Amino acid sequence: MLRPLRILLSPPKCPLTRCCSGYVSRMRFVNRLQEDDDACAAALQNGRIFLFHSLSPLLQRTNRETFRTSALTASDLQPILKNLGSDGSLLKESVLIGCSEQNQAEFCLDVGQLDQAAVEEQCGGTFVDLRKAFFLLKGAEAPLVAKGQALLRWHQTNRFCSATGQPTQRNQAGSHRFCSSSSTTYYPQMSPVVIVLVSDGTRCLLGRQASFPRGLYSALAGFCNMGETLEEALRREVAEEVGLEVQNISYSSSQHWPFPHSSFMVACHASVSPTHSQVDVDHSELEEARWFSLDEITCALQVKAPPRRGDLPVIWLPPPHAVANRLITEWAGLQRHGKDGP
Ligand SMILES: NC(=O)C1=CN([C@@H]2O[C@H](COP(=O)(O)OP(=O)(O)OC[C@H]3O[C@@H](n4cnc5c(N)ncnc54)[C@H](O)[C@@H]3O)[C@@H](O)[C@H]2O)C=CC1
């Protein structure tokens, strides 16, 4: 007979003062768990575990429209895994992703080898593709599942040493893998990407790829090449994609972006002189790029959901989770207050 399942909903955000007071101890706790396998195994027994199935996170519907992540404790999960025919070793495949504000270690576990419907039934949730889940979740929950999925994916695709072909072994936290034949330690990787909102003083430049949904425009983005600085990558990408030379580069913010794989997005503003703003699009990279006025951006920022089939054509922008949205919002705010971006 199964014990009643206790689903732990992610805690609401705590007041700033409390977050700050516990921050140092939480960071040191996570760091210790990454270094000490025994401590990590013990923390797993008392931790919160976010389930994934074939890299899709388990979500709970809170009402008709909204979803939240759900986490189980090890003691809730163990009987479920056993009931579904898994031995006790599966739990140890959990990877550490952080520590809650209640000082509880947080882990992710992919149960892709178990029957999806059976896990959903026993856990009272639904596994949702990350592309959908990322935009259904609010606040800190979206980056949390993105981080968990990225780490689980990295382990699934780095089981062997690229030098010797021998299997690699992970530490308990999952913060690295080790090949004992070549004594090589492998760490999870992100690809650096620069994303830039170019302004000519009164307008900003957005582009769209042919693969984007109809009407979606975004800031220009591109992967950094080996050996490049961010500034070099930014200048090169803008030159390649739209034939412009930018100046006045300023940093805005950054984010981990899980699509299609882990990118480390560094978001910047930059400018061109209004007398040198003629766009020359490389159509092998972009379908279109053009300048947008503040009025056009203000309208586009008000479109809160992608247009549906049959709706009138409308220009819309990446959602608030995307750092591109932050760049565009920052630019619009500065324009409204009479200052250009960078
Ligand atoms: N979070 C946000 O606000 C936004 C995120 N992005 C992300 O930025 C990234 C780059 O954007 P785009 O250049 O438009 O992407 P893209 O997917 O069009 O990639 C461009 C080219 O870069 C090369 N490439 C792919 N993966 C690479 C890697 N890991 N390292 C080096 N080169 C690689 C390939 O030749 C690919 O054709 C994408 O992951 C995209 O999802 C793009 C716009 C907004």
From TrEMBL:
Keywords: Hydrolase, Magnesium, Metal-binding, NAD
SUPFAM superfamilies xref list: Nudix
Xref: Pfam families: NUDIX (PF00293), NUDIX-like (PF09296), Zn_ribbon_NUD (PF09297)
Nudix hydrolase domain location: 188-316
Catalytic activity: NADH + H2O = reduced beta-nicotinamide D-ribonucleotide + AMP + 2 H(+); NADPH + H2O = reduced beta-nicotinamide D-ribonucleotide + adenosine 2',5'-bisphosphate + 2 H(+); NAD(+) + H2O = beta-nicotinamide D-ribonucleotide + AMP + 2 H(+)
Annotated EC: 3.6.1.22
An MF annotation (GO) of this entry: hydrolase activity
Cofactor dependence: Mg(2+)
Domain of life: Eukaryota
InterPro entries the UniProt entry points to: NADH_PPase-like_N, NudC-like_C, NUDIX_hydrolase-like_dom_sf, NUDIX_hydrolase_CS, NUDIX_hydrolase_dom, Znr_NADH_PPase
NCBIfam families noted in UniProt: PRK00241.1 (NF001299)
PANTHER family listed in its UniProt record: NAD(P)H PYROPHOSPHATASE NUDT13, MITOCHONDRIAL, NUCLEOSIDE DIPHOSPHATE-LINKED MOIETY X MOTIF 13
Name under which the protein is recorded: NAD(+) diphosphatase
Naturally occurring in which organism (per UniProt): Amphiprion percula
